Amino acid sequence: MKFVVLAPTAEVEIADTAIAYERTRPGLGRAFIDEVRAVSRNVARAPEAGMEACGGIRCAATLSFPYRVIFRERSSRIEVLAVLPTQAEAERLLVRLATRTLAVSK
After folding, report:
1. S-S: 29 plus which of 7, 18, 57, 69, CB 3.0-4.6 Å?
2. In 1-106, where does DSSP find H-type helix?
């Protein structure tokens, strides 16, 4: 199993979404974080199970929330680039992903 690295912007997206869910109902933010972690673990075990979007970028949907984890596979890790609502426009998503870089050591 590969290890998972979150892009800084993905960390912010997860935190912001969790806070919004927590304001809606106590415990819902924690449930969102737990679900994103579960999807990330599944992706680390079987990256090919994610739907290919383009250029090696894949996505995997959460089960209980209308979000998807956007990632790419590297030789030793999975890079989570974004965690976005499923209704996010494809063009907006691709522009965002094209401009992102992960600052991780190789």
Report:
1. 18
2. 8-24, 28-45, 90-98
- 17-55: pLDDT as tens digits: 999 999 999 999 999 999 999 999 999 999 988 888 777
Task: Please calculate the CA angle 57-61-1 and round it to the nearest 5 degrees.
Answer: 65
Place 95 in a pLDDT band, splitting at 50, 70 and 90.
low
- Looking at the 3D structure of the chain, how many domains does it have? 1
Q: How far apart are CA 63 and CA 34, in angstroms?
A: 11
Residue 91, in any domain of the structure: yes
Q: Token pair of 42, please?
A: 């599944």
Residue located via tokens 């600052």: 103
Contacts of 86 (CB under 8 A, 6+ apart): 61, 66, 67, 68
46 located within any domain: yes
Q: Place 104 in a pLDDT band, splitting at 50, 70 and 90.
A: very low
CATH of the domain at 15: 3.30.2310.20
